[in-house]
Amino acid sequence: MADNNINQYIKDLAEEVKVEKNEIKEIIINSFRSLNINNDLFFDFDNESFSVYKKYKIIDEEKEINQEKEIIRKNIKDKKMIRGEFFFSNIDLKNLSFSIISEIKKHLRENIKKINKEKIQEWFKKFENKIVSGKIRNIKENYALIEIDDIIAYWEKKEWHQNQIQFGKRLVFLVKQLTKDEKENFRIILSRSEDLFIKKILTEEITELNNNDIIIKDLLRISGLLTKVIVESRRKEIDPLGACIGKNAERIRKISSLIYPERLDIAVWSEDKKILLFNLMSPVKIISLIKKKENWDVIVSQKQVSLILSNRGELVKKIGEYLEKKIHIKIFEELDKEKNSIIIWNGNINFENFNSFNK
């Protein structure tokens, strides 16, 4: 007869530590064996039950120790057993001594810790630098616990952005690294701020990138806010911008939903730094570009200046660093009228389009 308490304990423990019930049962059996009390013990378990039996041999009823007399006497009477025969009697696990129970629990904890370490190492080896989907299970002071199948991983607070930290919310992550805490327990660290996170998602969602028909030249990124992806086609017949956006913008919408609230812009590579500047500034239209050696004055409309100077002009700084130029944004409407009259319309919007755009 199975002991319901031990079975419930095994079931609860299996759910808590994400270890198969049969593994826990094997650990318990090994715990008995490690205590050198297994010589006369036998174990019986299946998916739903776990029982321990002690083996008895009929020698001389009167010589058996007192605490076992009744067990033996009852079996001789009920089963009409004779001297020299064996029988098995179920042990009530609740009646085991405190020292035995404590030792079994200690052995169980040590083995489960070892199993979890091995499981975490194997999982990390399989998914390192890959994209995985996980659910926010708990939110601590400096990190969030992310549930991925039967693995718990860590997402550090320094990467959090607005509207992301909600209990139960599902997000995608890059499996970044495997570390150890102060107790030598393994921790899987996830990331959404690594550039590789963006590159992996783009490669998974855009076939031409995966096939190397299009390549990512570089990323200009303000993590959690905006990424400018610079792409180049290796085949003349493939439009890199159209391929990344996809039919009816399906690809770009899917990618945007995965990296939300971060925004994604695609910029086509050009060896001409002026054209590359225009592409990187999109959707902002440039009225004029005035080159003064390493200083470039970029003139834009008042209506669009907020698009390029948001986040304290961080994007402009990144574009300038990438192009190795010092970029100064100037507002067309704030220039002197005399300068306006002689401005060179050498940007990517002409005078006629500017007038209709500003209406």
Tell me the count of domains.
4
Q: Bin the helical content.
A: 25-40%
- Counting DSSP E segments of at least 2 residues, the number of strands comes to 14
Order of strands, main sheet, comes to 4-5-6-8-7
The assigned structural class equals: alpha+beta
Query: Whole-number radius of gyration?
Result: 35 Å
Largest sheet: 5 strands, mixed, barrel
Number of helices: 12
Order of secondary-structure elements: HHEEHEHEEEEEHHEEHHEHEEHEHH
Low-confidence stretches: 61-67
Mean pLDDT over all positions: 81
Query: What gap, in angstroms, lies between the N and C termini?
Result: 86 Å
What spatial form do the alpha-carbon principal axes imply? elongated
Strand content: 25-35%
Characterize the structure shown.
This protein has 359 residues and is an alpha+beta fold. It folds into 4 domains: 4-121; 128-193, Beta Barrel (OB fold (Dihydrolipoamide Acetyltransferase, E2P)), CATH 2.40.50; 203-269, K homology (KH) domain (GMP Synthetase, Chain A, domain 3, 2-Layer Sandwich), CATH 3.30.300; 281-359, GMP Synthetase, Chain A, domain 3 (2-Layer Sandwich), CATH 3.30.300. It contains 12 helices and 14 strands. The strands form 4 sheets. It has a 5-stranded mixed beta barrel. It has a 3-stranded antiparallel beta sheet with strand order 1-2-3. A 3-stranded mixed beta sheet has the order 9-10-11, with helices on both faces. The longest helix has 30 residues, at 98-127. The radius of gyration is 35 Å and the shape is elongated. The protein starts with a helix and ends with a helix.
